[in-house]
Design goal:
By secondary structure, the protein is of the alpha/beta class. It has 5 helices and 9 strands. It has a 7-stranded mixed sheet with strand order 1-3-2-6-9-7-8, sandwiched between helices. A two-stranded antiparallel ribbon has the order 4-5.
Length: 255
Amino acid sequence: MTDPVPLLGPDDPAPLEVVNPEGRVPLVLVCEHAGRAFPAGLGRLGLSAEASLRHIAWDIGAEGVARHLSALLDAPLFLQRYSRLVIDCNRPFAAPDLIPEVGDLEPVPGNAGLTAAERQARFDAVHRPFHAALAAWLAAHPGARMVTIHSFTPMLRRTGAPRPWQIGLLYVRDDRLSLRLMAALRAQDPALVAAFNEPYQADDLSDYALPVHGEARGTEYAMIEIRNDLIATPEGQADWAGRIARALRPALPLS
């Protein structure tokens, strides 16, 4: 039997980029859907160039916000470089949308009919090393907090329902940091359209970082979802990073 061909070739980027690894703040920033890279061997999974730029492939604007936050707070940032269509690094292995065959009504031909071995190969090449590195950092920094940065589309094609929130703070059971952060955000801007567990409810089946690195470890955490039309430009990313940084300082505290 021949050995399987590795999913990632020598010219493919590593799944993980760590920004500001020596950051001095007891906080780690995480952006699981930062990138939209595809392994050369998979092409674009049969998607058009236009579809590969849509929210189904990555969290638009999240990387820019996260990089600004890392600099503003002097915090390390774990960025995941591959498209969430290659494998969703914020889903457990058993999740049906770990490797989606359809993304918001868009068929993903390269994900159709994968064998168990192909599914495992993607998990082992991208998901496992990303989260192993994050787990090792958290183990080495007891008491540190975790904030994950995501974005969401103003309306899903499959529902047609508007998603009016500017920002959502998500948690599974541990709401400690989310409550403090929401209070600080609303103190900054009383007109802010914000909610807990929107645009979806976080749970053990639809999320990975929160239950595994947060709940199971006892790490205080918050998951931040920002509406992507607000952070589609560098100016918007800098603005929202500044808002979140100003709110995080008293919410943690960082000093």
